[in-house]
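re: the backbone from monday

yeah here it is again, tokenized this time
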């Protein structure tokens, strides 16, 4: 149980740290957020839990493919906000666009036989 609490505290702590740093220095927060911290932690936790390098390799490959459509969020959100769209509506639209891009990429990868 302590192990799971540690995982939760470390993971949540990183999100809080990034948001707090963002209040003072958005560039530094962006650097911290752009490092695949969550992916890194997920890979470490998965290896710690299973010791299975094959699972870690599979997760890393899947993360690689799914990073591509996630980038659309960071294109759509600033564009929408720059057009004066309300923040929360922009967030919903950007998330929806990203979800569609995920679906599209997964369909394309499936068509070409790439396993996620």
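seq for it, each position gets an aa:
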């Amino acid at each position: 149980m302590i192990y799971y609490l540690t995982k939760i505290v470390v993971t949540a702590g990183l999100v809080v740290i990034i948001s707090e740093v963002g209040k003072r220095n958005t560039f530094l927060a962006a650097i911290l957020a752009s490092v695949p911290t969550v992916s890194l932690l997920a890979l470490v936790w998965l290896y710690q839990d299973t010791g299975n390098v094959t699972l870690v390799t599979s997760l890393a490959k899947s993360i690689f493919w799914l990073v591509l459509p996630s980038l659309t969020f960071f294109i759509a959100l600033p564009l929408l906000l720059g057009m004066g769209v309300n923040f929360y509506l922009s967030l919903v639209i950007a998330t929806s666009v990203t979800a569609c891009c995920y679906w599209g990429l997964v369909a394309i990868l499936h068509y070409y036989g790439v396993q996620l």
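The two ends are 30 Å apart (CA to CA). The chain has a mean pLDDT of 93.
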